[in-house]
């Protein structure tokens, strides 16, 4: 039976007096004066005009000793060494792949930074170069780590560990990079029955938990068997929960996603995306997170 | 939203073999096997696609690139009636409809279906009736793919898609019973109302035509055409007098206006309201336009894959069923909005 719901649009509510977290944040818009004190060094997101320090992006002001910078709330991904990213191959070039990671420039994955199947360590030859497309094609998804950042801001990736590599079946959710909390580990096996990779660049990959843990292939053999229905339901529910958290501007990390999942269990999976259900679930999640902190 | 230079596409209201239309393809570009193509297993299709070329295929619709395992996941999910966002095969995403958003039009509507955002404005202007239909008014469609939707639409990039959609709309509204064109006539052979329907694509999130047809119906429901009187002089010259009261106007009867339902074939089953990712997995789709009573006014097959005649029949039945529910839901929301009257809080674009 077809289910079609139509509704009239509701004006967005200003985020009410919900818990002010950890101190007052000094929020600025482009053009706002941050300070007129000339003793500060200007950092990213600021510029000097007529002896005043003015913000050039919309975000929160951060002060470290004498350095003042503005961290933008919604921005493209700016790579930092050691970040985990999930990216999509856009081009196959000589000796390297171009990867799309929601940053200002395409990221680069050099052939020498890629693990060969079987985990062998050897010098890359001409045959490897010709066989590049057998490893990764346009459209493939990979998980990788940032090795270095070029001077123009482009990011160089590497997959030199068995936990990185080509991704198999699953669902990708694209969110703003500023909503992904920096943690010690970004690979989580959630107790609800699915696994998740929280890329620092805002690409979140949800996939069914692999049965066996020891994979020497380094992620090159993709399992093309159909995923069972129970796993699919968990993955769809997680995907909708993440979309709900993002719509309500909550930081994404394993605990918040898990609490949101548990709060959504009484509802049907497709109902989670309805605005009123979304608000209810996220409110409950927020409450549980506050109880956890306090 | 001024229809300053509406492109006169094709003959008035009739058939349209527009430039953007894909020729109905039988068996795709692979030649040999014709009708049994969708009986082949999806895995064989994957292997064939891999061998073809690894590069991106540029299509006129705004599309996303997916990896093969991702596509496989979506196809298997559809087989089990559980799509990526938890919907069933016949469920629509949550839609938001608002009318009267553009103040200087005769009628307007905005529809948000998931990530797809469409704005339609209708302007009623005086014109001369067409020669072959002297006692009827007519509709003109113009579709603008805004560069806001995707950078591909910058400059003239969105023209091809816009022409294709406009031709589809002409075809859908070509049936005589859709809109009562005789009510748009003022003076036979001399004056009639021309309704310029302008569609603006603000965001592409899959399933464009369904959202556009919903918005067009809502905009036509919202259209208010000023009442005119024809005064005859002694010499026989006719004068048109506009009523002084700005609220004295005629409304269109939209009971028979059809809505488009796009059914995309994914694997062995078909889905309604496909997202961009699902559209990337579907090789062939069927577009049918259904009226509120369940009557089909037009049908079009798009995509480079082929469809078995039996599956076309199944898809048509699904489309009629879904179309009827769509009309009921839309009419309900339009009546609700109308009943709120002036107390309705207009959300518009900055809400």
UniProtKB/TrEMBL annotation, chain A:
Q: Which Gene3D superfamilies match?
A: 2.40.50.100, Nucleic acid-binding proteins
Residue ranges of the S1 motif domain? 80-160
**InterPro entries, sorted:** Exosome_cplx_N_dom (IPR025721), Exosome_RNA_bind1/RRP40/RRP4 (IPR026699), KH_dom_type_1 (IPR004088), KH_dom_type_1_sf (IPR036612), NA-bd_OB-fold (IPR012340), S1_domain (IPR003029), S1_RRP4 (IPR048565)
Q: Where is this region: Disordered?
A: 1-26
Kindly state one GO CC term assigned in the UniProt record: nuclear exosome (RNase complex)
Q: Subcellular localization, per the record?
A: Cytoplasm; Nucleus, Nucleolus
Q: Which GO terms describe its biological process?
A: CUT catabolic process; exonucleolytic trimming to generate mature 3'-end of 5.8S rRNA from tricistronic rRNA transcript (SSU-rRNA, 5.8S rRNA, LSU-rRNA); nuclear polyadenylation-dependent rRNA catabolic process; poly(A)-dependent snoRNA 3'-end processing; TRAMP-dependent tRNA surveillance pathway; U4 snRNA 3'-end processing
Source taxon at top rank: Eukaryota
SUPFAM superfamilies (alphabetical): Eukaryotic type KH-domain (KH-domain type I), Nucleic acid-binding proteins, Ribosomal L27 protein-like
Q: Which GO terms describe its molecular function?
A: RNA binding
The protein's matches in SMART domains, at most eight in alphabetical order, are given as: S1 (SM00316)
Q: Which UniProt keywords apply?
A: Cytoplasm, Exosome, Nucleus, Phosphoprotein, RNA-binding, rRNA processing
Q: Which Pfam families match?
A: ECR1_N, KH_6, S1_RRP4
Q: Which PANTHER family does the annotation name?
A: EXOSOME COMPLEX COMPONENT RRP4 (PTHR21321:SF4), PNAS-3 RELATED (PTHR21321)
Query: What is its quaternary makeup?
Result: Component of the RNA exosome core complex (Exo-9), composed of EXOSC1, EXOSC2, EXOSC3, EXOSC4, EXOSC5, EXOSC6, EXOSC7, EXOSC8 and EXOSC9; within the complex interacts with EXOSC4 and EXOSC7. The catalytically inactive RNA exosome core complex (Exo-9) associates with the catalytic subunit EXOSC10/RRP6. Exo-9 may associate with DIS3 to form the nucleolar exosome complex, or DIS3L to form the cytoplasmic exosome complex. Exo-9 is formed by a hexameric base ring consisting of the heterodimers EXOSC4-EXOSC9, EXOSC5-EXOSC8 and EXOSC6-EXOSC7, and a cap ring consisting of EXOSC1, EXOSC2 and EXOSC3.
Q: Which family does it belong to?
A: Belongs to the RRP4 family.
* Name under which the protein is recorded: Exosome complex component RRP4
Q: Where does this protein come from, organism-wise? A: Calidris pygmaea (Spoon-billed sandpiper)
From TrEMBL, chain B:
Chain positions covered by the region annotation Disordered: 1-63
Keyword Cytoplasm annotated? yes
State where the protein is found: Cytoplasm; Nucleus, Nucleolus
Which keywords fit this entry according to its UniProt record?
Acetylation, Cytoplasm, Exosome, Nucleus, RNA-binding, rRNA processing
Keyword presence, RNA-binding:
yes
Per UniProt, residues of the Exoribonuclease phosphorolytic domain are 92-226, 256-321
From its record, what is one biological process in GO terms? TRAMP-dependent tRNA surveillance pathway
Q: Which GO terms describe its molecular function?
A: mRNA 3'-UTR AU-rich region binding
Q: Would you name any one GO CC term? A: nuclear exosome (RNase complex)
Pfam families associated with the record: RNase_PH, RNase_PH_C
Q: Which family does it belong to?
A: Belongs to the RNase PH family.
- How does the annotation summarize its subunit structure? Component of the RNA exosome core complex (Exo-9), composed of EXOSC1, EXOSC2, EXOSC3, EXOSC4, EXOSC5, EXOSC6, EXOSC7, EXOSC8 and EXOSC9; within the complex interacts with EXOSC2 and EXOSC4. The catalytically inactive RNA exosome core complex (Exo-9) associates with the catalytic subunit EXOSC10/RRP6. Exo-9 may associate with DIS3 to form the nucleolar exosome complex, or DIS3L to form the cytoplasmic exosome complex. Exo-9 is formed by a hexameric base ring consisting of the heterodimers EXOSC4-EXOSC9, EXOSC5-EXOSC8 and EXOSC6-EXOSC7, and a cap ring consisting of EXOSC1, EXOSC2 and EXOSC3.
Protein name listed in UniProt: Exosome component 7
